């Protein structure tokens, strides 16, 4: 499972600044990092009059802007996607995902706490991975000074990154992460890698992504009952 953490805190507490510094330190250590900014108010990233904007205005449900350096995807959705849905669909090629916001979602949280903005943290101790704060307080969870980015990443690395298995199988169904036993992981991986090994020109697989759309099936009226 790809570890996912939500960075939360009061407005102007420094959530984005902390996320930037964590990403920079993680990248320095060689990790692939994904980030998500949660915006409950809605947003626009395209510009009126641009070709991609015209594609969307014409009715396209998904619009991609592609160049040799990067890819941007604008996709219409019918609900506010949950963290597991986002990770399952778009972040399977990273080692860790940091999300800014999602304080109501059931993900381990890193809270940026400043006493001048609030007398107490937003989250309950059981929701928190640790606090990022220069204020002294006893809250039953680890606390790191806001400038101590190295120690924060050490904490994440020791508990969630270096301990990850070198080979793993993850399954998402309808965007929801499904827990698999070691036996189930081995069976799925063995079957899939066996099929891949028989394909010409594929080479040695490092990461495999399989998307399957399961269409509704109606039983044949003549089938045994």
UniProtKB/TrEMBL annotation:
GO terms for molecular function: GTP binding. GO terms for biological process: Mo-molybdopterin cofactor biosynthetic process. It comes from the Bacteria. It holds the Pfam family MobB. InterPro entries: MGD_biosynthesis_adapter, MobB_dom, P-loop_NTPase. Gene3D superfamilies: P-loop containing nucleotide triphosphate hydrolases. Residues 4-129 form the Molybdopterin-guanine dinucleotide biosynthesis protein B (MobB) domain. CDD domains: MobB. NCBIfam families: mobB (TIGR00176). This is Molybdopterin-guanine dinucleotide biosynthesis adapter protein. It comes from Candidatus Hakubella thermalkaliphila.
């Amino acid at each position: 499972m790809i570890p996912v953490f939500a960075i939360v805190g009061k407005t102007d507490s420094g959530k984005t600044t902390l996320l930037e510094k964590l990403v920079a330190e993680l990248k320095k250590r060689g990790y692939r990092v994904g980030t998500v900014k949660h915006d409950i108010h809605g947003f626009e990233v395209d510009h009126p009059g641009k070709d991609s904007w015209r594609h969307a205005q014409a009715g396209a449900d998904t619009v991609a802007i592609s160049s040799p350096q990067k890819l941007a995807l604008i996709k219409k959705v019918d609900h506010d996607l949950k963290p597991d849905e986002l990770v399952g669909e778009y972040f399977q090629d990273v080692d860790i995902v940091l999300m800014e916001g999602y304080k109501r979602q059931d993900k381990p949280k890193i809270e940026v706490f400043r006493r001048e903005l609030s007398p107490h943290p937003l989250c309950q101790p059981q929701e928190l991975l640790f606090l990022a704060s220069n204020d002294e307080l006893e809250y039953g969870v680890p606390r790191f000074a806001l400038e101590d980015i190295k120690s924060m990443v050490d904490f994440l690395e020791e508990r969630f990154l270096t301990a990850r298995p070198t080979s793993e199988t993850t399954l998402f169904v309808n965007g929801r992460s499904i827990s698999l036993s070691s036996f189930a992981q081995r069976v799925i991986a063995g079957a899939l890698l066996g099929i891949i090994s028989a394909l010409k020109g594929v080479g040695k697989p490092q990461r495999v992504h399989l998307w399957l759309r399961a269409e509704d099936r109606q039983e044949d009226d003549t089938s045994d009952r």
